[in-house]
């Protein structure tokens, strides 16, 4: 999980607007101005819709044009127009859809994911301060073990709410319950069925840029997921490592499997 923490001055144009339901500058909208519609009112509406597109990608992870159109109730043409503007402003980028498991015939669909600049516009304004603090801890004699201890203490403080959320929930519902609890903490998490298990997907990470330098944050989180879910889990991808979503594989626990094999990762 190597990377460089962006400088605090790096900001998407109009990033403050993004936080307040406006995304980026108006791009080529004058051609579609209905007769008698004030330009300012039209531009505000366009920014609002563009923000909905960006927010949907934040909440659901890398998305196709069809998925965005369905979620937002827009036409595919309208979604493409907004995506073109977001790409031009370095808020989103196009990439091939990542496929887990066996590939189907044909070329992978194109998906749109938030760039680092796009994520910065939503939050993470204290990334540099947090990274500097952890670096100071490591350099003052504590080393990487001190950082790891901090990471474990941090996630343990959050784990109480997660543990409460899955109490009384059967094995089949624990991943979904954990996803809902994580979403309350800003991780925009979902659970989905996967071959021989489930995947816990976190479409947003408030500490992604810090975790680029300090992977102990991701490692501690993975450990607590295993403890809460009662099985060994496998982290497949992380936002901090440059993936579009943090993906954790949770194997299906067989009731007649021995303790030594119940949580084994798939080959």
UniProtKB/TrEMBL annotation:
<feature type="region of interest" description="Disordered">
    <location>
        <begin position="1"/>
        <end position="49"/>
    </location>
</feature>
<protein>
    <submittedName>
        <fullName>Transcriptional regulator</fullName>
    </submittedName>
</protein>
<dbReference type="Pfam" id="PF13412">
    <property type="entry name" value="HTH_24"/>
</dbReference>
<dbReference type="InterPro" id="IPR011991">
    <property type="entry name" value="ArsR-like_HTH"/>
</dbReference>
<dbReference type="InterPro" id="IPR050313">
    <property type="entry name" value="Carb_Metab_HTH_regulators"/>
</dbReference>
<dbReference type="InterPro" id="IPR036388">
    <property type="entry name" value="WH-like_DNA-bd_sf"/>
</dbReference>
<dbReference type="InterPro" id="IPR036390">
    <property type="entry name" value="WH_DNA-bd_sf"/>
</dbReference>
